[in-house]
Design a protein that fits this description.
The chain is an alpha+beta fold. It contains 16 helices and 38 strands. It is elongated. The structure holds guanosine-5'-diphosphate (GDP) and magnesium ion.
Length: about 675
């Protein structure tokens, strides 16, 4: 017997919707929210009114950037929809949402089939072993071809596509007309009626379509018998397969990712969406059927799998933070074990601090609703946590388990931003602090010489979106410069330096003296700071001040003020006098000593090298390759797959600005690419 909370768990789905831009993700999501009764009128993407597209600018760009989670209900099943962004610059966002969803709907365009970004997202989903169902949208368009898409997905994505429906397409005076679908399990025709397609009309299969329906049902049963012994036995014994059995066996196959069931529809025409929602509950996993999360026990130093048990110890992942003008930080949390209640203290495992979860909300498309518990498997918003950052694990002190850390790429592109008036400088700094808490992939710093604020992120579009948010959503009037590469700095030799500092401020002398050594550390190991001086009479605060001075100096190197990496600093001598030694003096002295030592240690710049993955139709591959080479790229690997070639290359970020436009123009818009940070390399090699 399952207990109540386990029954609830079985009726829960955490799903994402993945698609190439413009395949109809927003339109389909809107329809799902409408039919599930939570949003009251259908918002059209083209009017910029879609409910899921959270921010004003997303609507204007017509793309979805942030992954908000929306809860809705369908036939007693709770569906949490996690919005996944489709743009290449936001792969970190995609990864982040893949971490917390258990199943996905993959949307394909009925005319275009598999497009480059679908392929990228599909591969990411495979890495996380996410069970999927497929939806062929835009069946109403001229040139729509359901069977072509079935084959295309099979060939390009290697998925075992099995139609559970076939489209009903009739010849009309104005071309082919998509009328509805034939359900191959129920063996009925379905058409959509009512002003918003809210009613489905079922009818027997018309004589002219019977043969095709039989043929495709045969294929469905055949595919099922290949993965299900039960089906094979019944089939061989000549027994009739009842619909319940077909669904149960299909469910098992989808969960094991042996079958990708395919559906057809035209969301824009309000056709085909309800069976897709049925399929979410019929075939996609409940949280306790998904792969269990893996965590690291901090004290025992071992990895453990975490059973999805509402009665277990509390454990959750903060996968997204959004700033709300009224409520403050909205922390989107996926619970993996146990439960949390409003008003209770939660333990931030990484930061080793407790804080209070004042309120817990469930987000619907147009309102939020307070809940009195968030338990294993579920997703909601916690309000009141000030320390939590995207990627943090929350749990309890008694069971210090860290969920796998999310990997965020290094910020490699920056832009200077300057308020139009001095008075807005502080406001701008506050906004940048809020934004960096929401988005761990961007950082901000101040250029010491010019006083300009520099923001750094993963790519051109990423920064463009951030700047637009600052200007439009937060209403600061500021000027942004051109995007530039964020270099790093390091040293190539060992050097020592001894520095003395003395300054009279308000009649009092502030003096410090210290010696240190800088050495180059192995690439990728980060900066290290050691103080080799024994404490003796030197107070704790002075040591701390020296540490602050060194860490501050790491943040901006001596070549061009870029952050330093892979430098090891050892403080070998501290000359302290009780009379004149102050924290201020030691902090300044340490920073100056570091700079001087680095100057003598062959400092150099490091540039970010990007891993570029390209897909190109075979006929354009020559042009695409020469474009990559022109931009200083080195092709690492090429893979030809049925008409589409895959190219992997390494290229310096400095030469990748505007690459998207150039790639489109050499390939008639048909080649695609994704790019992420790979490593730093000494500049000018
Ligand atoms: P997204 O980028 O994947 O979120 O795609 P959208 O939902 O924004 O849709 C992109 C464009 O395709 C919009 O102009 C939609 O109106 C249109 N569209 C979406 N679904 C359909 C459909 O079923 N048929 C047709 N003809 N157009 C559609
Ligand atoms: Mg969209």
């Amino acid at each position: 017997m399952l207990c109540y909370s386990e029954v609830m768990l079985r009726k829960m789905r955490n799903i994402g919707i993945m698609a190439h831009i413009d395949a109809g993700k927003t339109t389909t999501t809107e329809r799902i929210l409408f039919y599930t009764g939570k949003s009251h009128r259908i918002g059209e993407v083209d009017d910029g009114e879609a409910t899921m597209d959270w921010m004003e600018q997303e609507q204007q760009r017509g793309i979805t950037i942030q992954s908000a989670a929306t809860t809705t209900y369908w036939k007693g099943c709770q569906v949490n929809i996690i919005d996944t962004p489709g743009h290449v610059d936001f792969t970190a966002e995609v990864e982040r949402s893949l971490r917390v969803l258990d199943g996905a709907i993959a949307i394909f365009d009925a005319v275009h089939g598999v497009e480059p970004q679908t392929e990228t997202v599909w591969r990411q989903a495979q890495r996380y072993q996410v069970p999927c169902i497929g939806y062929v949208n835009k069946m109403d368009r001229t040139g729509a071809d359901f069977y072509f898409v079935i084959e295309d997905v099979r060939k390009k994505l290697g998925a075992n596509t099995v139609p559970l429906q076939i489209p009903i397409v009739t010849d009309g005076s104005a071309g082919n007309r998509f009328e509805g679908v034939i359900d191959l399990i129920e063996m009925k025709e379905i058409r959509w009626e009512g002003s918003e397609g809210e009613n489905m009309a079922f009818s027997p299969i018309a004589a002219g379509r019977e043969a095709a329906a039989k043929e495709w049902r045969e294929k469905l049963i055949d595919a099922l018998s290949r993965v299900s012994d039960t089906v094979t036995e019944k089939y061989l014994a000549g027994e009739e397969l009842d619909t319940a059995l077909i669904r149960t066996e299909l469910r098992k196959a989808v969960l094991m990712r042996q079958i990708l069931p395919m559906f057809a529809g035209a969301s824009r025409r309000n056709t085909g969406v309800q069976p897709l929602i049925d399929a979410v509950s019929d075939y996609l996993p409940a949280p306790d059927e998904a792969l269990p999360a893996v965590g690291h026990h901090v004290k025992k130093e071992e990895n453990i799998t975490i059973p999805c048990d509402p009665k277990g110890q509390p454990l959750g992942l903060v996968f997204k933070i959004q700033n709300d003008r009224e409520a403050g930080s909205l922390c989107y949390v996926r619970m993996y074990s146990g439960s949390i209640k409003p008003g209770a203290a939660v333990f931030n495992v990484g930061k080793k601090k407790r804080e209070r979860a004042n309120r817990i909300l469930r987000m619907h498309s147009n309102k939020s609703e307070p809940v009195d518990e968030l338990s294993a498997g579920d997703i909601g918003v916690v309000i009141g946590m000030k320390l939590a950052q995207t990627g943090d694990t929350i749990g309890s002190e008694g069971w210090p388990v860290m969920l796998e850390k999310m990997q965020f790429p290094e910020p490699v592109v920056s832009v200077a931003i300057e308020p139009k008036t001095i008075s807005e400088q502080d406001k701008l700094k506050d906004i940048l602090a809020i934004l960096s808490k929401e988005d761990p992939t961007f950082t901000t710093r101040e250029n010491e010489e010019t006083g300009q604020l520099i923001i750094s992120g993963m790519g051109e579009l990423h920064l463009d979106v951030l700047v637009t948010r600052i200007l439009r959503d937060f209403k600061v009037s500021a000027r942004a410069g051109k995007p530039q590469v964020t270099y790093r700095e390091s040293i190539g030799a060992t050097a020592e330096h001894s520095e003395n500092f003395s300054r009279v401020i308000a009649g009092k002398e502030n003096a410090a003296g210290l010696g240190l050594r800088v050495e180059s550390a192995q690439r990728g190991t980060g900066n290290k700071y050691i103080c080799a001086v024994k404490s003796g009479i030197i107070p704790e605060e002075i040591f701390n001040a020296v540490g602050r001075g060194i860490n501050g100096a790491f943040a901006s190197g001596i070549v061009m003020g870029y952050p330093c990496i892979d430098i090891a600093v050892t403080v070998t001598d501290i000359r302290y006098s009780e009379l004149t030694g102050t924290e201020f003096a030691f902090e300044a002295c340490a920073s100056m000593a570091f700079d001087e030592a680095c100057r003598a240690a062959s400092p150099f710049l490091l540039e970010p090298i990007m891993a570029v993955n390209l897909t190109s139709p075979h006929e354009f591959v020559g042009e695409v390759m020469s474009l990559v080479t022109q931009r200083g790229g080195h092709v690492q690997n090429m893979n030809a797959k049925s008409g589409i070639d895959e190219i992997k290359a390494l290229a310096p970020m400095a030469q990748m600005f505007g690459f998207m436009t150039a790639l489109r123009s050499v390939s008639q818009g048909r080649a695609g690419f994704t790019m992420e940070f790979s490593h730093f390399e000494k500049k000018g090699r």
